Amino acid sequence: MTHVQTKGKKAIKAPFRADQVGSLLRSERIKEARERSGNGELSAAELRRIEDEEIIRIVDKQKEIGLQVVTDGEFRRAWWHFDFLEGLDGVEGYESGQGIKFHNTTTKARGIKVTGKVDFTDHPMLKDYEFLHGIAGDHTAKMTIPSPNMLFFRGKIETDIYGDNLDAFHHDVAEAYKKAIRAFYDAGCRYLQLDDTAWSVFFSEQGHEQIKAFGREPDELRESFARTINEAVKDRPEDLVVTMHICRGNFKSTWAAEGGYEAAAETIFGGLDLDGLFLEFDDERSGGFEPLRYVTNPNLQIVLGLVTSKHGDLEATEDIEARIQEAARYVDINQLCLSPQCGFASTEEGNLLTEAEQWKKLQHVIAIADRVWE
Predict the structure, then answer these.
(1) DSSP run (H or E) holding 232
(2) Contact, 323 vs 365, CB < 8 A?
(3) Which of 131, 155, 168, 296 could cross-link with 151 by S-S, CB 3.0 to 4.6 Å?
């Protein structure tokens, strides 16, 4: 695909010099409305009206601070991944009895299971995107959905349809995503992001233990992940930008995985048919920039997540600028962009900072990008 980016901050196509991952802190009004809805005290129509109003407010704020890209903050979701995956044919959500383990904490209990052939026929998030598209104006509306690999990574396959035939499972998932991508495109989407924590299993010994628990080998699983993504995005329209955010976990300002990109770098940076990669580089858990030497596609944009979304303190501008220049030793600086390392609320609970601090973080990204790519 053709990817066009100007030398300065302003870009013709996404990702932008100053970008964002997607999720934003849920407002107290949203939290209260969702709680009342869950208790049966608020109708679905009334909840949606409140969500609409709050999304309009935060989209206006994103425009006001100078972002070129706007999202709905994932305000209609409880989880960044489960809400979308449960909308696929053959997938159901269930009360798992246990949460996902993070560093020194655990999420609330929730799970997904595959109960039939995976497919895509329709999805409630198409309507969600259409609303965002309708209020974006001359800004670019970004839609975020979990990577196809997340259904394997977080899903429990409880069906005789696939049995031990994981190739058939991955094929059906890729085909379902191909239909989903086309549906979002037909709804007006031109900037789609896949969010993926599954790649983190390659980054540490703890992750390698997870691979063994899956009954897979690292090389085989890495190839499977890449093949599923590439099949999913294959034949996408020329004017649709598809990026991927690779995450090590983001829940209440903590994390689930650690380790640098080196063990999967050749596949991630040289083997995926994507337009951009959003990468975490906000602390020592992410390793150095050396794996970027495997970036061989001159049209692949690398979005450096150097500004953390996990706390409200602003990083020193000169430190971020120095790190961008360090990354530019491996990738042409005109292929680099800047963003927070993750969203601010991958789940509805959100990270441990205030909404005011969140906006200052995003303004910080914009200001630094203006200085670097002026």
Answers:
(1) helix 218-233
(2) no
(3) 155
Q: Is 366 exposed, middle or buried (0-12, 13-18, 19+ CB in 10 A)?
A: buried
67: left (phi over 0), alpha (psi -120 to 50) or beta: beta
180 has a pLDDT exceeding 50:
yes
**Local confidence band at 12 (pLDDT 50, 70, 90 cut-offs):** low
Closest among 148, 130, 137 to 242, alpha carbons compared = 148
Q: Judge contact between 276 and 302, C-beta under 8 A.
A: yes
Q: CA angle at residue 345 from 264 to 152, to 5 degrees? A: 40
Which residues have a Cβ under 8 Å from the Cβ of 80 and sit 6 or more positions away? 22, 23, 74, 144, 146, 195, 343, 346, 347
213 phi, psi to nearest 5 deg: -65, -30
pLDDT at site 207: 84
146-175 as b/e: b if 16+ CB within 10 A: bbbbbbbbbbebeeebbeeebeebbebbbb
What average pLDDT does the structure give for the chain? 93
Residue pair 233/241 in contact by the 8 Å Cβ criterion: no
d(CA 6, CA 343): 25
Question: Phi and psi for 189 in degrees, rounded to 5?
Answer: -70, 130
Q: What is the domain partition of the chain in residue ranges?
A: 53-372
What own/partner pairs with CB < 8 Å and gap ≥ 24 does 172-175 have?
172/90, 172/117, 172/118, 172/119, 173/118, 173/148, 173/228, 173/232, 174/148, 174/227, 174/228, 174/229, 174/231, 174/232, 175/119, 175/231
Q: One-letter amino acid identity for 80? A: W
* Ranges assigned E (strand) in the chain: 69-70, 89-94, 101-102, 105-106, 111-119, 140-141, 143-146, 155-157, 191-196, 241-246, 276-280, 301-307, 336-340
196 DSSP β-pair partners: 246
d(CA 264, CA 223): 10
| pLDDT grade for 4, boundaries at 50, 70 and 90 | very low
Beta carbons of 84 and 193 less than 8 angstroms apart: no
DSSP state of 216: -
Provide the pLDDT for residue 208.
85
Reduced to 3 states, what is the DSSP secondary structure of residue 176? helix
Please provide the size of the chain in residues: 374
pLDDT at 7 over 50: no
Name the CATH architecture for the domain at 53-372. Alpha-Beta Barrel (3.20)
